[in-house]
């Protein structure tokens, strides 16, 4: 049975909870005076980026149903985006490499969310241009956002579609995550059939609809899948489909 044939192909809440890797690190932000760096997000609105050594601002934007629902498990602001993986590091990794875990020693805050980095240099790059490194669709599974029509904003906030920090792709200079290698393979196949621009435009439109246009205001902090090759027990594994990885959407 294929990933896109299952209306419940993202893990149920109980299974998701059992597979989550809890973030046990408590973020401590030093409160100093001033120091907010103001940049423009993709929509042109001002957004604050705060270094870990600067005062944090409560700048959570209004979401699709009013103020951000911090109780929605996938998008809680209490944990680091993408389980603390260094978003800047992906742009210097080779295709197929595992992500690089960041550290709370190098933390920046963007739109109320914490981002970890593996070095001061990568932290500085992010703070200079955060929208250059933000994950597409908040770090949720790209294939799920673009192709799985059963998702709603309520189910995305609470249950996925999960992302995997180790299954990713850079397309046209932007960072995309996937639940595991099968959705990535299927997304790459759609790129080859329909064209990169068309499939990205579809995902962009869906994400904008889910977030009521606040596309850079919600990020995945809790909903992850850690088996790179296989999904749930009845889903396909990448070895079931192909051992030919010659085509990818990836372009930098």
Keywords:
alpha+beta; 8 strands; 25% helix; 16% strand; globular; disordered N terminus
Topology:
Elements: H1 13-19, E1 37-40, E2 46-51, E3 62-63, E4 66-67, E5 103-110, E6 113-117, H2 120-128, H3 142-147, H4 153-159, E7 164-171, E8 174-178, H5 181-194, H6 196-210, H7 238-241
Antiparallel strand pairs: 1-2, 2-5, 3-4, 5-6, 7-8
Helix pairs in contact: 5-6
Description of the molecule:
The protein has helices spanning 13-19, 120-128, 142-147, 153-159, 181-194, 196-210, 238-241, and strands at 37-40, 46-51, 62-63, 66-67, 103-110, 113-117, 164-171, 174-178. The protein is α+β, with helices and mostly antiparallel strands. It has a 4-stranded antiparallel sheet with strand order 1-2-5-6, covered by helices on one side. It is globular and about 40 Å long. The two termini are 33 Å apart.
